[in-house]
């Protein structure tokens, strides 16, 4: 009985390690390439999954893509070449960081544009408010104000 | 009055954004176009499922409008799709299969059981041609014109109505 309990405990403790086996163990000549592998697999989106990077997905196609990234890094290809390779097959969908180009200008420009617009609105509002509060009343306005105050009093 | 209209501006902005995001909810993320559209069918050199001695390449697809269907014995939807493909073949459409990530025995068993609408099957056990085609699951179907250019792409199951409404008109268009 004690043996069974011990074995079970062992199995439970080892379980999380099994989960990690989905991502392969890779060997790299140097830490720079390893870091590039990590960055690339984290920024490439799995085409089969709706929102998962390939380093995080157990889908077979994600495994194939990791393999290609690894092989191409070993071949000495640049990050851009590897990303181009993937985009030419799976489309822009696989890029978590869309490229800055004609089609994506709106995508990249809109947030900055909205912040600028907001700043402009705030500046205009502050200015307008400052102008109205700083200005003295004209004679006409003063007369009207007096009239209003007096009316209140008489009512 | 003008001021009040101005105050409505954030609300209007919010509504526009809301409508935009709501529309995004109903978009099917798998409906996106293939990156290979209007490009040449990728180069390959693989054996056929039927004959391990026979090597074929992309010139196989030249000269006639061809539907290239990527399938595998492991893929349940491919089985459901076979009757539609058999109908297409009966109607005179040229079909070429890509047996994707499969073994020769299982691939052959599949065709023996569910019928074989294909003129020939390209055997792609490693999925290398599939990868170059940007295939991320099976079934996927590509229409290749007589110059070997990819003209239409269908991801997933081909329903009987898809045959009538999209596949056949596309085949006719490029013939």
Automatic annotation (TrEMBL), chain A:
Q: Name the InterPro entries for this protein.
A: C-type_cytochrome_biogenesis, CcmH/CycL/Ccl2/NrfF_N, CcmH/CycL/NrfF/Ccl2_sf
* The CcmH/CycL/Ccl2/NrfF N-terminal domain, residue ranges: 10-148
- Gene Ontology terms describing biological process: cytochrome complex assembly
Q: What keywords is this UniProt entry annotated with?
A: Cytochrome c-type biogenesis, Heme, Iron, Membrane, Metal-binding, Signal, Transmembrane, Transmembrane helix
Q: Which family does it belong to?
A: Belongs to the CcmH/CycL/Ccl2/NrfF family.
So what does this one do?
Possible subunit of a heme lyase.
Instruction: Write the protein's name.
Output: Cytochrome c-type biogenesis protein
Where does this protein come from, organism-wise? Answer: Halomonas lysinitropha
Question: What's the encoding gene here?
Answer: ccmH_2
UniProtKB/TrEMBL annotation, chain B:
Q: Does the keyword Disulfide bond apply?
A: yes
Q: Note the InterPro entries from the entry.
A: Periplasmic_diS_OxRdtase_DsbE, Redoxin, Thioredoxin-like_sf, Thioredoxin_CS, Thioredoxin_domain, Thioredoxin_ResA/DsbE_sf
Print the keywords alphabetically.
Cytochrome c-type biogenesis, Disulfide bond, Redox-active center
Q: Which GO cellular component terms, listed alphabetically, does the Swiss-Prot or TrEMBL entry include?
A: outer membrane-bounded periplasmic space; plasma membrane
Q: Where in the cell is it found?
A: Cell inner membrane
Question: GO:BP terms for this protein?
Answer: cytochrome complex assembly
Domain spans labelled Thioredoxin: 35-172
Q: List the molecular function annotations (GO) for this entry.
A: disulfide oxidoreductase activity
Q: How does it sit in the membrane?
A: Single-pass membrane protein
- Is the keyword Amino-acid biosynthesis assigned to this protein? no
Per the record, the major location class is membrane
Q: Give the SUPFAM superfamilies listed for this entry.
A: Thioredoxin-like (SSF52833)
The similarity annotation says: Belongs to the thioredoxin family. DsbE subfamily.
What this protein is called in its record is: Thiol:disulfide interchange protein DsbE
- Which organism's genome codes for this protein? Halomonas lysinitropha
Q: Which gene encodes it?
A: dsbE_2
